[in-house]
Amino acid sequence: MSDIPLHLVPVRSREAKDFVRTWHRHHPPPAGQIFAVGAADERGTLRAVAIVGRPVARHLDDGATLEVTRTATDGARNANSLLYGAAWRAAKALGYRRLVTYTQDGESGASLRGAGWRVIASRPPRAGWHTPSRPRAGHGNDHVTRLLWEAL
Which InterPro entries does this entry report, sorted A to Z (predicted)? Predict the structure, then answer.
């Protein structure tokens, strides 16, 4: 893909979730969010989104930390790096002191490194959330090693 200039745009929750439904490789949209940000081309066409919300892991949900819970792109070059950087600047502007996200085993993390993030932990695969007493559907991330990243 060619380097098409992108710029940041505000994105409403419904539009961000619809974009994720269309373009994300293996996850549905997250249930909630604090904010979303998008990247659009010179024609104003939305090319990528990042959704930021409360951390999924309870021990990270300390009131000062947010998590990029989903990004999705139509393949626009450098869009994710642009969005990861913007998400961290926005989170700091809102008073948050930490922003984290995860990548799955096999994902390069190039967009995160490009935006100045660093790996802070490796999370082993988990068996899933389903139990006989509380049935749950899998969302494509069971049995997968993950890396925890933090914005700098």
Answer: Gp66-like
Q: For position 83, what pLDDT does the model report?
A: 98
Q: How far apart are the C-alpha atoms of 149 and 129, rounded to whole Å? A: 22
Q: Quote the pLDDT of residue 27.
A: 85
Q: In sequence order, what are the residues at sequence separation of 6 or more whose Cβ sits closer than 8 angstroms to the Cβ of residue 46?
A: 9, 11, 15, 19, 38, 39, 40
State the CB neighbour count (10 A cutoff) for residue 92: 14
pTM value? 0.88
What is the largest distance, in Å, between two alpha-carbon atoms of the chain? Answer: 51
The two tokens of residue 115 are 């935006």
Query: What is the SS3 assignment for 18?
Result: helix
Q: Is 8 helix (H, G, I), strand (E, B) or coil?
A: strand
39 strand-pairing partners: 8, 48
Instruction: Return d(Cα 144, Cα 126) in angstroms, integer.
Output: 7
Instruction: Determine phi and psi for 118, rounding to 5 degrees.
Output: -135, 150
Task: State the DSSP code for 26.
Answer: S
SS3 60: helix
